[in-house]
Amino acid sequence: MRLLACWVALVLLSVGTVMSGAAGWWWAVVLAAVAKAWVIADGFMELRHAPLGWRAAMLAWPVVLVAGIVVMR
Amino acid sequence: MFTSVDRRLPGDLAMWFFILAELSVFAILILAFAVTQTLRPEVFAEGRAQLDTSTGLAMTLSLLTAGLLAALAQQQALADRSRRAAGLLVLGLLVALVYVWIKLSEYGHLAAAGLGLEHSTFFTLYWILTGFHFLHVLLGMVILAWLALRCWRGAYGPGRQSGMESGVLYWHMVDLVWVVLFPLVYVL
């Protein structure tokens, strides 16, 4: 059930990404990217029960990338 | 009363270091794409206009659904239902094939239109970035097929899950990269 909920969230965020892009809401697109990456890391990869260092590293990856993309815009 | 939380890293530690190394390489490529976009915005806008966002969305849904099926298969294997796990992995493979078919169609369409590696800076980076990711998807599919075969033979179950977890983690890593790559290349 939890995995299905994660998948539904990912689908909705993906559709939201395309709609936000069409509307020119770039900030919503990048926020959705981070949210999707976190759902995959915590939900599918089961990092929510992992040692904090590993979890932090995986959750930080999309944040750092998206921050870089935003700064360069 | 406080209870200690048993924190556990799924899969093999080596797989996690491998995933970190892969994510680092992808991060460099993604940031290179973003930097170049800042330097040549008009070239990137023109190049992106040649891509179909709905195609990108379809590929996203294919990869994420394959990820869901792989995660469900892992749950089934943990519950000692190996045959059901194998079936879910095969289903995941079929869904992943949809991504491969769409991606190859897109590559064929772009190549036929003369939008190859040397057409513009956008397409140089597009082919490198998405091509590198595509190769990872293909490897991920080989891994899923291997896991399906091993599941069918009953190799995984309670207490002997590490190999399967590592293989499925690889697929999730491919998904993780795509959810950042897709908006950057197709949408932003």
From TrEMBL, chain B:
<dbReference type="GO" id="GO:0019646">
    <property type="term" value="P:aerobic electron transport chain"/>
</dbReference>
<keyword id="KW-0812">Transmembrane</keyword>
<feature type="transmembrane region" description="Helical">
    <location>
        <begin position="168"/>
        <end position="187"/>
    </location>
</feature>
<dbReference type="InterPro" id="IPR035973">
    <property type="entry name" value="Cyt_c_oxidase_su3-like_sf"/>
</dbReference>
<comment type="similarity">
    <text>Belongs to the cytochrome c oxidase subunit 3 family.</text>
</comment>
<dbReference type="GO" id="GO:0005886">
    <property type="term" value="C:plasma membrane"/>
</dbReference>
<dbReference type="InterPro" id="IPR000298">
    <property type="entry name" value="Cyt_c_oxidase-like_su3"/>
</dbReference>
<feature type="transmembrane region" description="Helical">
    <location>
        <begin position="55"/>
        <end position="73"/>
    </location>
</feature>
<protein>
    <submittedName>
        <fullName>Cytochrome c oxidase subunit 3 family protein</fullName>
    </submittedName>
</protein>
<feature type="domain" description="Heme-copper oxidase subunit III family profile">
    <location>
        <begin position="13"/>
        <end position="188"/>
    </location>
</feature>
<keyword id="KW-0472">Membrane</keyword>
<dbReference type="InterPro" id="IPR013833">
    <property type="entry name" value="Cyt_c_oxidase_su3_a-hlx"/>
</dbReference>
<feature type="transmembrane region" description="Helical">
    <location>
        <begin position="122"/>
        <end position="147"/>
    </location>
</feature>
<feature type="transmembrane region" description="Helical">
    <location>
        <begin position="85"/>
        <end position="102"/>
    </location>
</feature>
<dbReference type="GO" id="GO:0004129">
    <property type="term" value="F:cytochrome-c oxidase activity"/>
</dbReference>
<keyword id="KW-1133">Transmembrane helix</keyword>
<feature type="transmembrane region" description="Helical">
    <location>
        <begin position="12"/>
        <end position="35"/>
    </location>
</feature>
<dbReference type="Pfam" id="PF00510">
    <property type="entry name" value="COX3"/>
</dbReference>
<dbReference type="InterPro" id="IPR024791">
    <property type="entry name" value="Cyt_c/ubiquinol_Oxase_su3"/>
</dbReference>
